[in-house]
Amino acid sequence: MYNAVLRLTKGEDMSKTVSVDVVGPSRWAYMASVMAEKLGQVAATKQTRAGQFPAGVYSDAREFYRLVLEAAGDGTPVNPPASVSAYALAADAVRAERADATRAEVEQTLERQKALLDDLPKTRELSTNELETLTSLQSFFLWLKQEGESEAYESVVGYELPVGLRMR
Question: What is the pLDDT of residues 65-91, one digit of tens each?
Fold first, then answer.
């Protein structure tokens, strides 16, 4: 989908990075909506199968988690605004479920979610631990969808004239 927008090739300067406004939650809302729905289907059957996720949506989900873990790591992200924005969203979602989570616990949760996400295209039964992670991942995508829709709505309403000032 939009993956090419976020990637920089080696040697490009930082002035070509994407601004934080472009990678806010509304940018990820559609992907999050589809992923939450598909993860619900996986949870119901307790198994994954090849082709269960639309390729573009799945690619965007993996890109999101790549950005998240890039910001969580010790190195400098390729696109700091996008990575930091994605990490902030993901960390907020984890803390929405567990307010007392330490940074290390947040990062462990995100790494487990990413590992499960990477394995989703393989056809197989899910373990109890994987189902727990799947539920957490689905909750995250539902949260991200809501945040994205809220951001999109606020941007529309913020630019809309009050009813009394509209031209007829």
Answer: 999 999 988 888 888 898 999 999 999
